[in-house]
Amino acid sequence: CIRDREWVELLREAEEAMRPLRGPSPVDPGDPEARRDAGARERLNRLILNGLQFTVASARSVYSMVEILDGLDLRLPVIEFNGGYVSEFSTQRSLVCHSIERPLALAVTELALSAGTPPIFSTQVDGQQRVHLPNGDLNAGQHWYLRDREEASDPRPRSHVGPHRMPEERIVCITLIDRERPLLPIREAARMRFGASLQTHLFENRYCPGWYWLTFHAANATKAHALEWLAERHGFAMEQVTVFGDDLNDLPMFQAAGKGIAVANAHPAIKSVCTELIGPHHENSVVDYLERVTRT
Q1: What strands lie across the sheet with 128-132, from one edge to the other?
Q2: How far apart are CA 6 and CA 171, in angstroms?
Q3: Residues 138-167: tens digit of each pLDDT
């Protein structure tokens, strides 16, 4: 049973279940998917109102989360950039920042540029986030990212400068966007050179198929570390935390939390360590689970 003061950490499945309705138009009563999305938000807001405490942990930025979780009454800080930040959802202000050590950031930048893939820098200064984009010609994957941020009125993008030009900014994430083939040797070279000093993630952009993102984070920039900070700040033991997940970047969190709930479409490694397996995320299985256990 999940008590009123027990943490529930809601992951990408919740994001997908609550995809925002694009634009200001009301819900189309003839659109089953739109009705389901709006219904999921209403159900989750009722759970929050009744005392259920939960947050969202994602590889996304809080600016993307605000767009995706439109209409959800999140009252607790969110975990973004795979644990690089813990931020206030309403103001987007960073409370915790796990940044890459400057010598490591410089070395990653050199490695990327030598391979012909200019990096994107996600940084923080005085609690505010910035994104420094490459100058010159962009590939289609980078163009997609820039256009997506412009359409979302994201305030972070800045013109490109290298790490040596931003001494006051803490570098939280370095992102390379390219086809998979050129990114694979960069990832392997980084793993051999930096080992456990950096977190690396390689994944396809599901909204721009064929283009991959290779991201670099500090070693302590994990969802598990960020969740432990949140639990300590709000007075909860990790044994009280229930997490939901589907991908490999959720694995440390599953190992740290009291309960780990995997969705049916989760990676086999997540299923192998989960406490319970529920339905796929696109069927609102996370919301169904929360309602079921809060009734018991």
Answers
A1: 157-158, 128-132, 120-125, 170-178, 212-218, 198-204
A2: 33
A3: 899 999 999 999 998 999 998 766 666 677
Of the chain, the percentage scoring pLDDT greater than 70 comes to: 85
* In contact, 257 and 238? CB cutoff 8 Å: yes
* Confidence (pLDDT) at 137: 83
In this structure, are residues 204 and 212 in contact, taking their beta carbons and an 8 Å threshold? yes
Contact between residue 254 and residue 235 where contact means Cβ atoms under 8 Å apart: no
Question: How far, rounded to the nearest angstrom, does the alpha carbon of residue 90 sit from its chain's CA centroid?
Answer: 16
Contacts of 141 (CB under 8 A, 6+ apart): 177, 178, 179, 205, 208, 210, 211, 212, 213
Determine contact, residues 17/284, Cβ cutoff 8 Å: yes
Residue closest to 186 by CA, chosen among 249, 121, 291, 109: 109
Q: Rounded distance, CA 132 to CA 54, Å?
A: 31
Residue with tokens 């109102």: 49
Q: Tokens standing for 148?
A: 């997506």
90-113 pLDDT, tens digit per residue, is 999 889 999 999 999 999 999 999
47 residue type, one letter = L
Contact criterion met (CB below 8 Å) for 57 and 15: no
What HEC string does the chain produce?
Answer: CCCCCCEEEECHHHHHHCCCCCCCCCCCCCCHHHHHHHHHHHHHHHHHHCCCEEEEECCCCHHHHHHHCCCCCCCCCEEEHHHCEEECCCCCCEEEECCCCHHHHHHHHHHHHHCCCCCEEEEEECCEEEEECCCCCCCHHHHHHHHHHHHCCCCCEECCCCHHHCCCCEEEEEEEEECHHHHHHHHHHHHHHHHHHEEEEEEECCCCCCCEEEEEEECCCCHHHHHHHHHHHCCCCHHHCEEEECCHHHHHHHHHCCEEEECCCCCHHHHHHCCEECCCHHHCHHHHHHHHHHHC
